Automatic annotation (TrEMBL):
Sites where the protein binds S-adenosyl-L-methionine: 62, 80, 102-103, 119
Protein's name according to its UniProt entry: Demethylmenaquinone methyltransferase
Family annotation (InterPro entries): SAM-dependent_MTases_sf, UbiE/COQ5_MeTrFase, UbiE/COQ5_MeTrFase_CS
Pfam families on file: Ubie_methyltran
Top-level taxonomy: Bacteria, Bacillati, Actinomycetota, Actinomycetes, Kitasatosporales
Organism annotation: Actinacidiphila yanglinensis
EC number: 2.1.1.163
Length: 230
C-alpha cells in the first residue's frame, strides 16, 4: 500500500487516496474525535452560499465536504484527481456532478464559479501557489474562496500536546481503523510541515486574492482562510 512523501508527487498522492477511499469518512470521524462535523459546518457558514450559486469544491474526495453546499441549494461541483475517491463518492451521492481534475490545471473556463472552497486538500497539492492562482482563475470577479486546512494551535502548551498526539497516538489508532495506516504517518508529517495561519494568508495575497482573513477552529488545529477575487 502506498503513502505519499513530503515531495507530494501527484501520482503518489492520488494513489494514496485511492487506497483509503472506502473507509476515508469513517476514519476521519474517529481520528478527529468527531470534530470534522463542526469544521464542515463552519466552512458552510463562512462560504455563505445562496441558492443557485455555482460552487467548486476542490479536492472533494468522496464529496462529503460538498454536501452542505448542495443542502443550501447551490450547484456544487465536487472535483478531485483520485479516481478511487470519486468512485466512492459517486456510489454515495449519485446526484452530484463529481468531476476528475487536478487542482493545478483545472478543467474549467475562467470565472465560471461564484465561490470556490477546498477542505483538507490544499496541503496535499504539490504546488500550493499554482492551485491558489488556478482557483482564482475559475472564480468570477467578486467571487470568494474559503480554505479549510489543518493549521498550528495558537496556545503553546496545547500545541505540544497536539504534536505528541499527531506523532505518537495517531498512527497506532489509524492501524485499527484505516485500510492504510501509513497514510496517517504522511498526514502527521504534512500537518507539521504546513505553513502557519499568517504564512498561508500571505500566499493567498501573493496569488492575487484580496480581503484575506482567517479564523481558528478548535484552538487553531484547523484554520479557515478566506479571500475575494478582486
Ligand atoms: C483529505 S482528502 C479531503 C476530501 C474532502 N475535501 C473532505 O473534506 O473530506 C484530500 C483530497 O484532495 C485530493 N487532492 C490532492 N491533491 C490534489 C490535486 N492536485 N488535485 C485534485 N485533488 C487533489 C485527494 O485526492 C483527496 O481526495
Amino acid at each position: 500500500m502506498t503513502r505519499a512523501s513530503l515531495e507530494k508527487q501527484p501520482k503518489d498522492v492520488a494513489a494514496m487516496f485511492d487506497g483509503v477511499a472506502e473507509k476515508y469518512d469513517l476514519t476521519n470521524d474517529v481520528l478527529s474525535l468527531g470534530q470534522t462535523r463542526l469544521w464542515r459546518r463552519a466552512v458552510g457558514q463562512a462560504l455563505d452560499v445562496r441558492p443557485g450559486e455555482r460552487v467548486l469544491d476542490l479536492g472533494a474526495g468522496t464529496a462529503t465536504s460538498s454536501l452542505p453546499f448542495a443542502a443550501a441549494g447551490a450547484e456544487v461541483v465536487p472535483c478531485d484527481f483520485s479516481l478511487g475517491m470519486l468512485r466512492e463518492g459517486k456510489k454515495r451521492h449519485p446526484e452530484l456532478p463529481l468531476t476528475a481534475g487536478d487542482a493545478t490545471r483545472l478543467p474549467f473556463a475562467d470565472g465560471v464559479f461564484d465561490a470556490v472552497t477546498i477542505s483538507f486538500a490544499l496541503r496535499n497539492v504539490q504546488d500550493t501557489d499554482a492551485a491558489l492562482r488556478e482557483m482564482r482563475r475559475v472564480t468570477r470577479p467578486g467571487g470568494r474562496l474559503v480554505i479549510c486546512e489543518f493549521s498550528h494551535p495558537t496556545y503553546r502548551p496545547f500545541r505540544t500536546v497536539y504534536t505528541e498526539y499527531l506523532m505518537r497516538a495517531l498512527p497506532p489508532v489509524a492501524t485499527k481503523v484505516s485500510s492504510n495506516p501509513d497514510a496517517y504517518v504522511y498526514l502527521a508529517e504534512s500537518i507539521r510541515a504546513w505553513p502557519d495561519q499568517q504564512a498561508l494568508g500571505r500566499r493567498l495575497k501573493d496569488a492575487g486574492w484580496v480581503r484575506v482573513a482567517w479564523r481558528n477552529l478548535t484552538g487553531g488545529i484547523v484554520a479557515l482562510h478566506r479571500g475575494t477575487n478582486p
